[in-house]
């Protein structure tokens, strides 16, 4: 059993919805993240999947301590990060870094690559003393597969994939232990996406990094993750190893999600059953009572409206699932020949 | 230049001789360039494809491959300048649309060929209601009264399965969710019953469960109306689900054209092969992904010979010198690679 590097417990993040300008009145809350718990072990990749609006990006912001949680805790090696401030917080920030989705807007267009990647050293000067910074930056560029000679170029001189590499180099600069990847490859073309995914894997092996890998693309998540958490409307509905989630999903939402992913193989066209979900994701301001998925679920009973199902291991299953009627179902297009 | 002419005649769409071929929509050796301050970008360099009634042609390619510009040229909505059509034809029922007057083209738009776009929020006019934008077509093109047009528009909204179509008629685009907006846009594009529908990345901005709904809907409507559909996408998964034929584009050219089953089973161009190898699959826990090294070429400076040669694992000296024409290599299959035969016949 390896140690837990991150422990997230009952994490809640609500954003107030206000009306009025001078006399602001809170008329409700967007329940972006509403009671999320999981552990991240050292050296593993936890994939977080879900559709837009399920709270996965808010989760990343709270994990980074860019937002204070409304309730609950995030502990890095046993230390609650939301309670830290000042120097202690700054020291902690070195350990958790973020790779952002959009390589076009996340890099300051007026800074050179050298400045962008070297900026973390300004704040954490203990990592690289002033004289050695340029060499350090060149080393980082080389590490992520960019030409170190390009250190004086500006972001617009690079392609999308290269910019994402700059973002990764910047995240690596302080030698963090945890990197949170928020949709790091979704803005990239297929051929480039594979290059960046391979790079992330290589870096993980080399530095023993732990990743929280947030994405909406289930195939990408499966490829990179050891364990996977499926989110729906601010809650984790199912969590387990990559194998448990993809081969033996028990939550209806996971099953529907997996069945809807197009598989690049035309021969599977006929013998594929897709579970059609009707309607859209409800508003996170007023999520349905009980189970949040019940409004789109084909299994919904009265109990689903009354009792929110707990995320727990149920009979006949080997991993936690938040459904009163969790059961296995053959849905994943298996690779029989 | 001579080898390009060869490619035109031997492309599977033209099938050699007889013209007019009776095809619904044909793009024939189309060439488009963008003249900018920094130089001339050759965006489309001889694209030939066709689509017939009731079939789905998927145009597959990465950003900058020219797949959307081709569609914009077909629709006549290319920004000119900076875009210039420097050669080729776009024939609808055998008539070259590029030679038509603006008025003639306008009549084809909507009734002959319609298009749906990726980003439904920016494709719909935010200051008019969704219902108005659909009904407008019936009033202007069909001369219907306000009341009749409204009735038809509600029918359209109903057909694309928007719940409570009547109540939704007076909603503005921002009041719709992403999936609903895409449905509204489908309703709008199908209002005048077009013969060809161009769908430019119709589901890229949507979540998977919604994507499945929209692709279903499109398939259903296409079968009902026997429309020809050009599906422009970069998603090899979606293509495998719905396409009949596939044209793969790279650097403004078609590099491979094939039936969907053939293409996935035995790609005949190293680029197609590379794409198929580099996608992670849902049904397989992958090892290291195989990648295509390098980047797509700068369209202002396309490498001599085969544009894919700097990234190609199979590249030989000939690839750096001679542009491989798109040659037929089997029934309904064509590849623009000097080594297509070897690629298909390997095991």
TrEMBL record, chain A:
Q: Which InterPro entries match?
A: AAA+_ATPase, ABC_transp_ATP-bind, ABC_transporter-like_ATP-bd, ABC_transporter-like_CS, Oligopep_ABC_C, P-loop_NTPase
SUPFAM superfamilies this protein is in?
P-loop containing nucleoside triphosphate hydrolases
Name a biological process GO annotation.
Answer: transmembrane transport
Q: Which PROSITE patterns match?
A: ABC_TRANSPORTER_1, ABC_TRANSPORTER_2
Keywords tagged on the record: ATP-binding, Nucleotide-binding, Transport
User: Pfam families, alphabetically?
Assistant: ABC_tran, oligo_HPY
Give one GO term, molecular function aspect. ATP hydrolysis activity
**Which stretches are transmembrane?**
none
ABC transporter domain location: 6-258
Q: Which family does it belong to?
A: Belongs to the ABC transporter superfamily.
Query: Known NCBIfam families for this protein?
Result: oligo_HPY, PRK11308.1
What this protein is called in its record is Oligopeptide transport system ATP-binding protein
Q: Which organism encodes this protein?
A: Micromonospora halophytica
Automatic annotation (TrEMBL), chain B:
Q: Which CDD domains match?
A: ABC_NikE_OppD_transporters
Tell me how this protein sits in the membrane: Peripheral membrane protein
The principal location of this protein is: membrane
Any one annotated GO CC term: plasma membrane
BP GO annotations: peptide transport
What segment(s) does the record annotate as region Disordered?
1-22
- For the ABC transporter domain, which residue ranges apply? 25-276
Q: Which residues form the signal peptide?
A: none
| UniProt KW Cell membrane keyword | yes
| Keywords assigned | ATP-binding, Cell membrane, Membrane, Nucleotide-binding, Transport
The similarity annotation says:
Belongs to the ABC transporter superfamily.
Can you name this protein? Answer: Oligopeptide transport system ATP-binding protein
Specify the species: Micromonospora halophytica
């Amino acid at each position: 059993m390896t140690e837990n590097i991150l422990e997230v417990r009952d994490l809640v993040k609500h954003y107030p919805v206000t009306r009025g300008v001078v006399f602001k009145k809170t008329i409700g809350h967007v329940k972006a993240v509403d009671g999320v718990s999981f552990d991240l072990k050292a050296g593993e990749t936890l994939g977080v999947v879900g559709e837009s609006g399920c709270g996965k990006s808010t989760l990343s912001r709270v994990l980074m301590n860019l937002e204070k949680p409304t309730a609950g805790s995030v502990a890095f090696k046993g230390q609650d990060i939301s309670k830290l401030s000042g120097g202690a917080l700054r020291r902690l920030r070195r350990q958790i870094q973020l790779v952002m989705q959009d390589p076009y807007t996340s890099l300051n267009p007026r800074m050179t690559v050298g400045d962008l990647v070297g900026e973390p050293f300004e704040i954490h000067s203990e990592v690289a003393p002033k004289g050695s910074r340029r060499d350090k930056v060149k080393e980082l560029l080389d590490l992520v597969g960019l030409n170190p000679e390009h250190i004086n170029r500006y972001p617009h001189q690079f392609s999308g994939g290269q910019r994402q590499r700059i973002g990764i180099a910047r995240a690596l600069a302080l030698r963090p232990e945890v990197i949170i990847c928020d949709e790091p490859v979704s803005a990239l073309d297929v051929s480039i996406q594979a290059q960046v995914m391979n790079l992330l894997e290589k870096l993980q092996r080399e530095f023993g990094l732990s990743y929280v890998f947030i994405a909406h693309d289930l195939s990408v998540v499966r490829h990179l993750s050891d364990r996977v958490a499926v989110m729906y409307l601010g809650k984790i509905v199912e969590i387990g190893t990559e194998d448990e989630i993809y081969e033996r999903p028990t939550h209806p939402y996971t099953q529907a999600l997996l069945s809807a992913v197009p598989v690049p193989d035309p021969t599977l066209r006929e013998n594929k059953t897709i579970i059609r979900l009707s309607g859209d994701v409800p508003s996170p301001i007023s999520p349905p009572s009980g189970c949040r998925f019940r409004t789109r679920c084909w299994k919904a009973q009265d109990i689903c409206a009354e009792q929110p199902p707990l995320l727990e291991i149920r009979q006949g299953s080997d991993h936690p699932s938040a459904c009163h009627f969790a059961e296995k179902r053959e849905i994943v297009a298996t690779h029989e020949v | 230049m001579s080898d390009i002419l060869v490619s035109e005649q031997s492309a599977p769409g033209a099938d050699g001789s007889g013209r007019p071929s009776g095809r619904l929509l044909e793009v024939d050796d189309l060439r488009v360039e963008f003249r900018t301050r920094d130089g001339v970008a050759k965006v489309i360099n001889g694209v030939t494809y066709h689509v017939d009634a009731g079939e789905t042609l998927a145009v597959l390619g990465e950003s900058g491959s020219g797949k959307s510009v081709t569609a914009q040229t077909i629709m006549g909505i290319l920004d000119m300048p900076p875009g210039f059509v420097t050669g080729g034809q776009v024939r609808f029922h055998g008539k070259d649309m590029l030679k038509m007057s603006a008025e003639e083209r306008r009549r084809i738009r909507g009734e002959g060929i319609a298009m749906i776009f990726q980003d439904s929020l920016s494709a719909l006019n935010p200051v008019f209601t969704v219902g108005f934008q659909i009904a407008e077509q019936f009033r202007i093109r069909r001369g219907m009264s306000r009341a009749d047009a409204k009735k038809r528009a509600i029918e359209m909204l109903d057909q694309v399965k928007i719940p409570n179509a009547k109540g939704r008629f007076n909603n503005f685009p921002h009041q719709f969710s992403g999936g609903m907006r895409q449905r509204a846009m489908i309703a709008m594009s199908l209002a005048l019953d077009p013969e060809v529908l161009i769908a430019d990345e119709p589901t890229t901005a949507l979540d998977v469960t919604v994507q499945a709904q929209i692709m279903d809907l499109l398939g259903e409507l296409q079968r009902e109306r026997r429309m020809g559909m050009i599906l422009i996408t970069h998603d090899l998964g979606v293509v495998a689900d719905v396409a009949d034929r596939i044209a793969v584009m790279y650097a403004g050219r078609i590099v491979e054209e094939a039936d969907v089953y053939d293409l996935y089973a035995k790609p005949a161009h190293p680029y197609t092969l590379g794409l198929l190898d580099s996608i992670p699959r849902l049904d397989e826990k992958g090892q290291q992904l195989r990648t295509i090294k390098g980047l797509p070429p700068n369209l202002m400076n396309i490498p001599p010979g085969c544009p894919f040669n700097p990234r190609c694992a199979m590249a030989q000296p000939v690839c750096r010198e001679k542009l491989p024409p798109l040659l037929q290599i089997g029934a309904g299959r064509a590849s623009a690679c000097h080594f297509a035969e070897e690629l298909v016949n390997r095991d």
